[in-house]
Amino acid sequence: MPIAGNHTSLQEYISSEWREKGRYDGLGDVIMAIADGSCQVQQQVRQSALAGALGATGETNVHGEIVQHLDKFSSDTFVETLLSSGHVAAIGCEEIEKPVIAEGDVSDGYIVLMDPLDGSSNIDVAVSIGSIFGIWQKKPGETVNDASLLRPGNEQVAAAYVVYGSSTVLVLATKNNVCGFTLDSASGSFALTHPGIKIPADCPYYSTNEGNNKVLDKSTQEAITLLRNKYSLRYVGSLVADFHRNLLKGGIFAYPADQNRKDGRLRLMYEANPLGFVAEQAGGAASTGYERIMDIVPQQLHQRTPLILGNKDVVEETVSVIKGG
Ligand code: AFP
User: Fold this and answer.
1) H helix or E strand, kind and range, residue 135
2) Which atom of ligand 1 is nearest to the CA of 253?
3) CA distances from 299 to 11, 112, 175, 245, 305 (A)
4) Reduced to 3 states, what is the DSSP secondary structure of residue 124?
5) Cβ(131) to ligand 1 under 6 A?
6) What is the tens place of the pLDDT at every residue in 142-179?
């Protein structure tokens, strides 16, 4: 069934923008695997209460968090679609302690780091949640092992995320190009609805858990106070949903380090790096409060990082206050 309203489909976009121009060999199949997986996940998300798929599995993940049924469903679904693409050499996943290494040699392969379902605490209350993906190209002739996944964010060739909200939107970023595709549920295809996304210069919003303010250090409290005095608070508690709003409307997201979380709460490889890549390609910035997220040389697959993300000027101003400037 054709897409409603004569929109360009994600498939057509990939063909015209990549394949016909001989760019990103195999990446198109990886993105279509993400699109396919997210169609299955969004279906399960929307039906979860009816399908008895709400609640916890009783298992805990490598972070010591209780695994929700939808966390497991999303993780299994994306591992399956990504490996079936034939272009994924390895996967690092929030829900899986060790990397998943593809069998056999995947020549023009990609390495995908993913948070298959971000915002788990919002699943049971019908609040927007999402999936996040960072994509690196396998080094030529490399025999992939666990260490192959520990690459800095600035080596990503692409990043993508999906928001399961009032509509299902897939945002795809490559060098200097960020586009949004909305799922047309009638045809089951993603349609290009947001070409050439740039973070607006205006910044009406700040997103942070104000409940953590009491455990922030002095300079970080001053930085948050500055945001509070200048912008309106919007905080969903799902990073992907807060980031998506700020990407389209302008805004800054801040989850700094605090007394309880010296390394921050969010994960570097499959939350901060992919969204940092999207933000930078859209004219924004991503920092720990002290350094550029994308320049961090990772030590562990599941390491955490403080994250300040959004409008470039506002991120830089916030960082300068945190540094005590
Ligand atoms: P969950 O996936 O455990 O709900 O965590 C969501 C998250 O990683 C990110 O999406 C939110 O921005 C952040 O944590 C919310 O953390 P707080 O609940 O501490 O505000």
Assistant:
1) strand 129-137
2) 12
3) 36, 17, 25, 31, 12
4) helix
5) no
6) 999 999 999 999 999 999 999 999 999 999 999 889 99
